[in-house]
Amino acid sequence: MPIPSAERPPLSPMELDEAKARELEEQFDSEIRFRPLAPIAARLVGGLLVALSLFHYYTAGFGLLSEMVHRGIHLSFVLGLVFLVFPFSRKGYDKPVSASLWRPLGISVLDWLLAIGAVVAVAHVPLIPLDDLAFRVGNPTKTDVVLGALLIVVLLEATRRSVGWPLPIIALLFMAYALYGPSMPGILIHPGATVSQLVDHLYLTTQGIYGIALGVVATYVFHFVLFGVFATRIGLGQLFLDCAAWVAGRYAGGPAKVSIFGSALFGMISGSSVANTVTVGSLTIPAMIRLGYKRHFAAAVESASSTGGQITPPIMGAAAFLMIEFLDLPYTTIILAAIVPAFMHFFGVLVQVHFEAKRTGLRGMRADEMPDLKEAFKRDWPTVIPLIVLIGILLVGYTPYLAAFWGITLCILVGLFNPRKRMSVSEVLESLRDGAKYALAVGAAAATVGIVVGVVTLTGVGFKISFIVTSTAAEMASWFGTVLPTMMFAPQSLTLLFTLVMTGIVCILMGCGIPTTANYIIMATIAAPALGILGVEPIVAHFFVFYYGVLADITPPVALAAYAAAGMAGADPFKTGNTAFRLSMGKVLVPFVFVFSPSLLLVTANFTWSAFFTAFLGCMLGITCLGAALSGFMLVRTKLWEQVLLILAAILLVVPELYSSLIGALLIAPVLVRQIRDLKRSPPMPVSV
């Protein structure tokens, strides 16, 4: 039996209440907030969720099924469950509906029919013999067309219910483009496709709904999300928080820095920004507010830090696993490439938090508020074993899902036999159920993105958009080249710079309406080729759109992580989102650095240590300058002219052109002179208690 909390020694005032964290996550994360269900329906849904987790756990350890069958079983569960747990409208979240003739088990007949229709439509393709399927691609039967059209309709509705309107609208626009190609203007014109041809391509091939996006979710993402749930339940999250508090809590603005370090560590086992926000934020946000941080700033710190969970190895987010398929690279390569950019993200938030704490005179945590790290490790050291084994299996070269299988297995064993925090069988089943919850929204979104990818491969529109982007960037570079000195900015560098700027803006705008994973897939399909035309390595191009896509979780009006943190802090959501975006400006700069200096990713073709350290130091200095400018503080409060110079210096420092870097360094000099002079004249700043 688990040891009651009252019997455990109080190791830290930051004692993680996992039940409360799960409740907060369901409250603020729309993708796992289910409608209230009657008891029988709740047991049915719970059983199906556990079955979905057990299916993936078994296949991860004992062998995947054939491609179409595996993806078909996964999507059948996902779409069937979506119609049972997500209501047609927001009113369905209010209270449970009583069972009746038209609402069996409290769920409407329409939802039951949609669930059944989705399962039938999905299961049709995997049941077709492979030899027969090969002949039917390009020559579908009437049954294929009808069931394919049915799947497209129910898929769009399932995605609307689980992640909102924007992604289905984007998919509909792409399908309209495929159907009305001859009517498109200029370079976008194409021969067009009939409804039958479009359904055939999206339904019967692996270029559409059953494509890479769905496959990655069904073979990689699910397993690592399940591992993260189990790792948190056995106490690894608490150990990470204790370590973060011990490392960072004593310094100025302590709880905010604990939030950053805690989110970085927790991000190692959770690829979800919202899960990271509510779990770590349930402890750090109240502590920050008590210390004197404004509510919106406290919420922004946590949400900005927590978005790093999707870019922090070894778990990362769904997009990282998609890179394996898109780039045909081992996951260890993706992990290595992500290390330095992830560090830079957290460093960027830390810099601004530090300057904010110094500017407002906020203290660190007192000795009695700090955890006893020795006691924490004595209690929770077994919880580290599954993570170490998982990383070890990955580094040896085995498949990610096999690594996740052994990680989950060891989590269960540690949970069942750890006397200090023992899991019951019912808690194991709850973890299986909760792990599957994350699969529903992301599974529906991945399948819908398959529609977009399918249209791109059918029409070739991706290359046309790439041509438009690069041509526009070249024209802009040509105009600016007549104004700027050639020795500072070469024409090729300017063209690439403007292409990156346009790509980044589109990523952010797309992120305002669709989830990170969907954003990455679309941009990797459409925008990454534009960077490839300009000579950017594929892994660098994909990391660029990946990092800008992650900003979706803190970019209003979606900003799921920011809104979750705002709800916990009692702050204005929009103000929180804007502040979180400002705190993440370091993440905005970093992708430009590793495009112009790919050595920062460690695994690129022409990697050199000299190029790496040059880019690394320039990036840190640029992020520091930007943080000082945005925070209004460096050594003392900054003046307006200093902020302008620091922003210009930050931009110039991250561009690895010798002259621009030298000019950036020179711009910092007068700021430092004034700051040091006034620091010597100023009395010590009071520290709040």
TrEMBL record:
The record's subcellular location field reads:
Cell inner membrane
Query: According to its UniProt record, where is this protein mainly located?
Result: membrane
- Write out the function statement from the record: Part of the tripartite ATP-independent periplasmic (TRAP) transport system.
What membrane topology does the annotation report for this chain? Multi-pass membrane protein
A Pfam family cross-referenced in the UniProt record is: DctM
Looking at the keywords, is ATP-binding present? no
Instruction: Fetch the InterPro entries from UniProt.
Output: DctM (IPR010656), TRAP_DctM-Dct_fused (IPR011853)
Q: Where are the transmembrane segments?
A: 40-60, 72-89, 101-125, 170-189, 209-231, 331-355, 384-417, 438-469, 489-509, 521-548, 554-574, 586-605, 611-633, 645-673
Does the record carry Repeat as a key word?
Answer: no
Q: What is this protein called?
A: TRAP transporter 4TM/12TM fusion protein
The TRAP C4-dicarboxylate transport system permease DctM subunit domain covers which part of the protein? 151-607
The entry's keywords: Cell inner membrane, Cell membrane, Membrane, Transmembrane, Transmembrane helix, Transport
PANTHER family reported for this sequence: BLL3936 PROTEIN (PTHR43849)
